[in-house]
Amino acid sequence: MVQIVGVQLINFEKKNYQFKTAKMAVSRLSIGKFLELIITITCLTLHYKSSGESQHTLLLASGTFVGYTIILVGLFAGYLLSTPINKRIDIFFSLIGCVLFIATGALIIQEWNDDLIHSTFKTEARKLALTKGGLAIVNGIIFFCDVIFTFRD
């Protein structure tokens, strides 16, 4: 160390730092998580474009789509940084996601098909809402497959 007029300068020695490069193999779990994230963001975008449901369905859909966008971004970021979460927590999030997405999709489809106002007019919002409901059910099925793959892994 060298001191010059009250300022302390530190001489750093050259050290060989080894950085571990994470070699990530693309597995069916990572593909499943990425697919879940893409469908969730698509559902969220469609939800913004076609929000004509009742208050209960609107709150369930908003909570499911926004909440699982945040959860899946966190899970996917953890996977990319090679810090996976516990298997039990992953199964828990996937089971809850399965139930929420299937329930949300079923309520959206039921509401837009049974409502006389929405079913008599073939509007763009109705088409987007039915697509959103179908994608939510598909995402719920993908979450269930994720549970099976995670449990078997």
Characterize the structure shown:
There is one protein chain. The protein has about 150 residues and is mostly helical. The chain has one domain. About 70% of the residues lie in helices and about 5% in strands. The protein is built from 5 helices and 2 strands, in the order E-E-H-H-H-H-H. Strands 1-2 form a two-stranded antiparallel sheet. The relative contact order is 0.16.
Q: Which features would summarize this protein structure in a list?
A:
two-stranded antiparallel sheet, elongated, about 150 residues, about 70% helix, mainly alpha, 5 helices
Please give a quick description of this structure.
Helix content is 72%, strand content 4%. The chain is built from 5 helices and 2 strands, in the order ββααααα. Helix 1 runs antiparallel to helix 2, helix 2 runs antiparallel to helix 3 and helix 3 packs antiparallel against helix 5.
